[in-house]
What does this fold into?
Amino acid sequence: MLLGELLVPVHSLRGVAFEKWRSETTGKRRSELTATVLAEFYEMEEIIRSSRSPWVMVHEMGTIEGVPEEVASDSSYAPERRLLQYQEFFGRFRSRKHEFAAVFGKAAARSFDEMWKLRLEINWAVDSMLRHKEIRNARDKDNRELWLSWYNVAFRAADESKDPLVPRLKKIIESIEAECRPAVDAQAV
It folds into this structure.
């Protein structure tokens, strides 16, 4: 056997080392991204849950710059007021969707849209209650049911097993966990 046959070309070793480094770096980046996304979904779940508290405190009905007095002082506005405190977080959450889609594909990022739909549904329910105050204490069945449908989206039920948004929140969290958990767990090994 000749000495030349025993030597591996240096460029081959560099290629193997580079591929190993790239694979490790990519795996670490995917793991970090999924851990961040998972944490943000848990935070979003808590924000939605807490913003829908049925208990409205007096300080939650004060004036807000840029919001008409009659809106800001209405207890129906409380969930939206609470959500508005997280605008910066919501911006990061929405932009993270695109980063996640770039790494894992658009289908994997659907949970972002589903979570955002919940946030918008709360906004729509609050807006509907504020626009249609006249049916708040309606006696007729149809208007009463319509008001309650908005209220049950805007405010969490005291018994969460009867809350219409809780099962949807759980399903969204389960879905994003299914996407993220394998990458998070792979890095832990």
